[in-house]
Amino acid sequence: MGSLVWFEAGRPKKSQYRRFKIKGAGEAETDLVHDDFASVYEVVSRYFKRRLEEEKDLPDLVVIDGGKGQLSSARKALTELQLTSLPLISLAKREEEIFLPDRRDGLKLSRRAPSLRLLQRARDEAHRFAISYNRTRRKQRTVTSALLDIPGIGDKRRRQLLERFGSLAGVKLATPQEIAALPGFSTGLAERVLEHLP
User: Fold this and answer.
1) Which of 32, 62, 66, 158 could in theory staple to 147 by disulfide, Cβ–Cβ 3.0 to 4.6 A?
2) Mean local confidence (pLDDT), 43-60
3) Is the pLDDT of residue 196 over 80?
């Protein structure tokens, strides 16, 4: 999973945040081998391609989480989209080193430099955004998998229950008649569902 955050005037602009489900290097049409590099390439490609298609504003600066390899992957994606003039840097966590295209050595700012703190804040916000999404998805999978433990309930019927009643809690509040009214359900199956749910 990839995440993208947007800062304006030093503050997060959450309406511009985006998450990306990584499809894989094969679909990204890249010869990059390393998964992390391919993921950066894919996210940058997809995000900026869409931004161009929708004629939306581009950022003043693109900051990539990582080192030279991630920066190179992002640069390749931007070059293919003819966005070579877009300012691009990466921030490597280990030494908090900033890398710029066409510069061999990284740049180290004072740990107290406001510019470094802003970059760190943006990077940490992207991590937080991605982690919170992953936790939510994991929790949803755990909660709704309780339905799959019921004999006669497979993935299709689980989806039907959740679409009709909105959540596991909604299923628990349903009557046997409401559940039995779903296509492919019977009164017996509806009662079994309610018996198995805590």
Assistant:
1) 158
2) 96
3) yes
